[in-house]
Every structure is written in structure tokens, then in C-alpha cells.
């Protein structure tokens, strides 16, 4: 058994690359199915957020992470050559540890931010619905959620976190000063949208307008925060009026471009407009930032703000890293133990089958013996198989203890009956 | 006294730049410098026995004191440490000019109180324009950083909106006091029997400055020019103003006869 993880994140790839590799929730079941059809793994999980696109696969012991990385690049329409420098690869314990770190928000742009766990849970739910998972990923994900919970409850990491939404608010304040009496337009009603709305209101926002492709969802969302809902077609009219506009949709294409925004800014008399694009792929064209009065930011820009609290979060993160390391070790041993027990069981069954087959072949000779002798020979055959298997099995357990999966696999393969 | 004050201001400025977290140190150091600065001004008046409105040195010293005061006001009133730090060197430059500028041209007291009032208004206007300049420079800096999305350390700087509002106020105060300063002279001229008002280079320069800031305020309040455009007005306006002052002082040796001018 091998666990592989390949992907890109805000640490390794700019948003231009991430948006190419991103997989929308609508496309996720198809992508997971394709992955299995292409024999990239027996079990698979895909996490696609604004900040990362990661593929986890359970496959044969010696499977190649480069192959999986190439598949991820090709799925996003990128050549291996252009995507390779951005894609990281992890295998076995390292892959497990990476997943734990991601879910615990230790690999997040803003360490300790709570959204990532929800996003990992959503990805897991979709993988379950797509029937792309099996017993190994079930175990892995149970442990992942357990680790994330431990990190959140046993460390101060969550308290020191500055969420993505809050970072967006900080940027707005850098341009607009106080948010008292200001108005904001939220395009999309995704998870980030909710966080942004909450933060804006916490900082004295006067008016919140929500627009969404599904009007009913906009209404529901607006009611939740005491804002008002508008149809998507009305967005340009509100862009003329509001001080802040944030996009957090899964539209996958540009919703606000320079040609449309230029006349709006003229009508605004170039009054400052803060645009925050929390979507990947992006919803607000980057070149709108060239317009006078427009200040456009995207998820990558939040990295700089997040760094502010880095020192404060450092101690909490160190404690969290210790939990992750401890749990990785525990979980990996558990996974190996389960695999080993399965393999040992299979080997024992295989050895017993050989023994029985050989006794069967000697059936005509054994028939002539009295029952006591037959019983003694059968006991002796069992003892021989048991003693033959004892040494290798002890060695296998020792290798599993050491975590030396490569040697373990070689050992187990050596005892596998190729004909069975 | 001016040189001693200048040395203390320099210490205060270095302190501010090298240890920005030390919030108490700079106001105290600059405060001590300002006390010395003011003492020098008062001592000159006491020794001369009159307000030295015909002394370029004293005039520049007074203007420098107003600018340093404006710097402290900015820091306290609007929590604009950075804008205050930008303004302080302008006051120091003016003080340096005051230290080397010529003293009074005559030993006679000004014939009217209108002159000190006129000078006070004009200098307040100039100090306000200097404040608008530092706010404008800071606005353009913060804007550039935001546009380039270089966000590290920006939280210590004021928001663009706060800078824009403060810039408008500084320009408005400068424009009103400059207008008042000019009006005082006109009223005074009208009260003097048989006066023959004569426009010199300083008057033309003042009119040019007045027109520029009138245009800036008009563009801001009527045409809606704000932000970058207003900041450019502030920077260009003050740069032009400084060049005019230097030109008038050097090429024409004075302001209305300061420093021995005709």
C-alpha cells in the first residue's frame, strides 16, 4: 500500500497556475472517475480550493508520484514541463503528514484559519459520493479529522488566526479607513463570502448587498446578515455605488472586466473602489487595477497580511506540528499494521492452502496409515509451515515497526505465491 | 539658538526613523528643539525691541516653527506619524535657511500692525501647504504600494482615505489663510491715504500660488478630483511654491524688501 499526494498551493504556484489546475465541484466526480480509469490509484481524494489543488491516491506500493503529477498537470491542460516546477510530491508518511498539516491549517496561507477544514470535509464528502474511496482513505480521513480537532482544541492556533475574510477587510481599511457607514457588494455566496460578510459587519459596515447566480441563495444569505439581495444582472449598477466589492464564486470565469468597469469608475468620479477576488479561477480581471481609483486584490495578496501575525502564531504552530508528527507516526503504523495483518493473513492462508494441497496429493499414501499417524503427520505439516513463516513474519513486523515499507514489500512479495 | 534647535530636531528625526516604536521619545526631543527655536525667535524680538517682519532670517525661522508645529499637530491630531515625519525635514530646511539668511534691513519698527498680521496669515498658509505636500507624498507612496500590492508594513501607515481628507483640509486651511493674508494687505492699502500700491515679484508669486491652490480646491470640490489628482496638485503646488520662494529670495533678494531687497 502506498499513499501519494501531489499538488500545487499558494506556497509553490501563482494563481495563474492554480486556476488552471483547479477543479470545480461540478467536475469533481468526473475527474475522480477518470483518475481511477487511468489507473492512477485505487482510492482517490481531490482537494481544490482557492489556495491549493491536491490529489491524494492510494495505490500499489511502488507507484510513481511523477506519473500522478503528470496526470494532474494534463488534467488542467498544462504540460508537465510548465507545471513541474510548481507541483510538489509526497509519498507514504510524508503524504499523510502533509494531509494532516493541510487539514490542521498549518499549511494555510493564514495559519490557523478555520475554513480549510470545512473545505477538506467537503472534498471528502464529494469523494465518498463519487465512490472514489476505500478502506485506506477511510482510515486516513478519520485520523485527519481527529488530528485537526486535536490541533484546534489543544493549541492556541485558532485564536491567533486571521481569516481570509478578515484579511480582505484589513485591505479595505487600508484604502478606505473606517468601514463605518460604508457599503459592500458580495458576489457569490460561498464559504469565503460568509466570512467576509461577517468580518465587514463586525467592523461597522453600513450596508451589505449580496448578488448570486441563484437569486434564492442570495436572498437566504442576505437575510442571514441583514443585507439585501439583488439579481446578478444588477451587479454593474451596484458597483457604481458601493465602496467594496468581493467576489467569491465558483463561476470559473471573469465577471468584472476593465472595459465594463472603466465607465463605472468615470461615473463614480474615481471614488475609491476596493475589489477583492477570493475566487479561483478569478472573477475579477487583474488589469482593472490599472484604473484610477480601483484597488484590486486577490487571494495571493492576503499572504502578505497573514504574515503579520506570524510571530504570534509561531509558538502555537510549533505545538500543532508536534501533534501532527505524533499523529502521523501513530496513523502510519496503524495503516501499516492493518496492511501487514492483511498480508500476513493472506500468506498464512496461502501457506495452509499449499500444505493442504500437498496432503491431498499424498492422500492415497496417507489413507493407508492409521488415524493417529495421519493426525501426527497433519500436525507436523502445520508445524513446518508455521515455523517456516515465523522468521519472515517476525522480520515483517520489525520492518513495519521501523516504517521501512520498501523492504517490507519486497519481503512480502518474496513469499507471495505467484500462481495464486 | 537656531543651530542648536536644528541639531535637536535632527536627533528627533533620527530617533523617529531608527526607533519608530519609541512613541514618547520623538515628541519630547522635538519639543525641546521647538522650545529652543521659539526662544531664539523671542530673543531676537526682545533684542531688536520690535517684531522683525523685515528680517528674512526671522521670517524663515517663524515659518520653520509653524511647519514644526504643524508636524506635531499632524502626529497628535490625526495619528499620522509618517506624514509628520515627512513634514519635519521641511521645517528643518527652513530653519537652516533662517540660520544663514540676512537679518533685518532697517532698525525701524514697522509702521503698522497690519504687516505682522499679514505675515502671520501668509506663513500659516505656507505651513499648511507644506503639510499638504507631505500628506500628498505619503498618499502617492501608499497608493503605489497598494497598486503594486506590496502590502507588507502598510498597516503602520494611514489609510488612503484619511490621507486624502487631511490633504483637502490642509489645502483648504492654506488657501483661506493665504487669501486672508492677501486681503489684509489690500485692506491696509485702502486705509492708507494717498497710497500707491505697487505689485512686485512677491505679489506675482503669491497670486500664482493662490491661483494654483484655488484651481486644486475647485477641481476637488466641484469637479470631484480626489485621491491621486489631489495629491499631484499638492506635490506640484508645493514644489512650485518652494521654487518661487527660492527664486524670489535668491534672484530678487527678498520678499517685499526682506534682506535688503529694493
Task: Describe this entry's structure for a reader.
The complex is a heterodimer of chains A (420) and B (262). Chain A has 420 residues and is of the alpha/beta class. In chain A, a hairpin with a 3-residue loop joins β2 and β3. The mean pLDDT of chain A is 85. In chain B, α1 packs antiparallel against α4, α5 crosses α8 and α7 packs antiparallel against α8. The model of chain B has no long low-confidence stretch (mean pLDDT 80). Chains A and B meet through α8 of A and α5 and α6 of B.
Please tag this protein with its features.
heterodimer; A: 420 residues; alpha/beta; 4-stranded antiparallel β-sheet; 17 helices; B: 262 residues; mainly alpha; 0% strand; globular
Main sheet summary of chain B: none
Q: Give the largest interface.
A: A-B, 21 and 20 residues
Mean pLDDT of chain A: 85
Quote the average pLDDT of chain B.
Answer: 80
Q: What is the H-and-E element order of chain A?
A: EHHEEHHEHHHHEHEHEHEHEEHHHHH
Query: Main β-sheet of chain A, in a few words?
Result: 6 strands, parallel
| Poorly predicted parts of chain B | none
Number of helices of chain A: 17
As a whole number of angstroms, the C-alpha radius of gyration of chain B is: 19 Å
Distance linking N and C termini of chain A? 19 Å
What is the C-alpha radius of gyration of chain A, as a whole number of Å? 28 Å
User: Which structural class is indicated by helix and strand composition of chain B?
Assistant: mainly alpha
Strand order across the biggest sheet of chain A?
7-6-5-8-9-10
Q: List the secondary-structure elements of chain B in sequence, H or E.
A: HHHHHHHH
Distance between the termini of chain B: 29 Å
